[in-house]
Amino acid sequence: MALEDYQTYRSVPELAGLCSMDRAVKSDWSLSESVERLRRIHFTLRRVHEVLTAKITAEPIYELKTAFSLHAYVCAEQVTLIRKRVSEMREPPLGLEKEPCAALARLLEEVDSTPSTLELLIGIYQVVLPGVLRACQRIQDEAHPLADSPTIRIAKLMEFELEELVEFGHKAIDCLREEKSEVDDLSWCSDLRLILGIAGDVDGCDPERKGHDAELPPRRYEENVNQYNSEPRRDERFIDSFNAGVNPEAFLYDDRFAPRDKTLMMYYKRIRELDVPEMMASILVDLREDEPWGFHMEMSRQLWDEARHAMMGEVGFASLGIDWASIPINFTWSRNLNLQLDARERHGVLFFIEQGLMPRSGKRYEWEVANESGDPLAALFQDFDWADEVLHAQIGRRWYVPRYQNLKDALGYGDRCWSKVLSHWRADLESGLTQHQNWWPDLYQKACELWNQEPDPNAMQFSETYEHCRADLEQLD
């Protein structure tokens, strides 16, 4: 029977709809070709994940700090998809750790080394990720649609997600482009595309490539000149960031105050969680070579969740008509941990805090307060915030607790590490970094006006600070 005469039952689409029989009989593909392309995409996405994670702490622009948190997580998910797929093709995932191409490695080194946010965005979103998109498209066009259907599937999933990342990046570049001249932009982009061309594109399959023997251009920046900066930075909208003059936990757990009033403190606590990605990024950077990929994958998910929580607080204030930039958003927790503790100690503090949120007095309590407040948005956010924190406690039990004899020892270590951290409350005041202004009465007064209600006199008088206690209300020495 000739191929053109082949028929399915009553013309039901053939081969599960994957492709035509004409395409299926072509054998111009191999398992080794599939693995090699995935290796190169894996290397690229893992390096993008590392670069973006390392930029989170010191990137001052809030919108970029949160976007980097999301985009690093998306890359981590895609790296995990590739690792799983390669392991299914008679190849151990450990082989993925090898550098596949010197030019590709050089490209990511150049992007990582730039001290300019704009150049970083151009490198990631106009050069590197578009190269990954082309690689994903070529897999869909060239891989055998039946034999290698699982690889085509993940290529489609990666392309779908990366298109959104690239779109965001292009918009952000347009917004920031006024910071540098167009000539510099063109020169930087041209240099990076030259290197990518020498690599033969991300997948090494560009038919116009110059070849691996072509000479790489001189470095624009010295390798590793842009070392990781563990000190958090914020843009100019963040005022009085050393201010620890209001203790929202003390207000939240005080039975004298109404649930609706407490939602303000919960929205504040959510947006203040921006300091968690700033701290967690330092753990991932410092333990880059010391922990397996599974650790980095799950911790990247948790980091992104914390950035989401910060944006929930932003949205909460926006829903009330309150400008969050009028409130001091404190960053001393991440700053003090990053500058005073090592990565293992910081992880201990993180787990201790997450585990402390599991009892009924923790995240469940916040959700109950939000439900009683009459604010449906607060109830929604606390519902998902609670679920996220349960997940984070589980992540800690998988990756942190096994380093200790038991859960009690793990918690004790985290508690001791947190107790070592000097708050510098008095020193920050005396040095003039902050006056620890009590910003609560102004915020509460504004909210009551928007709610069209009279302020509670007791709530207006609230003035507890962080001078003598931590966020878990434990007393400081």
Describe this protein's structure:
This protein is mainly α. It has two domains: 28-198, Ferritin; 248-460, Heme Oxygenase, Chain A, CATH 1.20.910. Helices cover 62% and strands 0% of the residues. It has helices at 21-24, 31-56, 62-87, 102-113, 117-142, 149-176, 182-198, 248-252, 259-272, 275-286, 293-320, 332-340, 343-356, 360-373, 376-399, 407-420, 425-430, 440-451, 457-460. The protein starts with 20 loop residues before the first helix and ends in a 17-residue tail after the last helix. The model has no long low-confidence stretch (mean pLDDT 93).
Taking all residues together, what is the mean pLDDT? 93
Number of strands: 0
Question: What characterizes the major β-sheet?
Answer: none
According to CATH, what is the topology of the largest domain? Heme Oxygenase, Chain A
SS content category: mainly alpha
* N→C terminal distance: 88 Å
Order of helices and strands: HHHHHHHHHHHHHHHHHHH
**Uncertain residue ranges:** none
Query: What's the CATH first level of the largest domain?
Result: Mainly Alpha
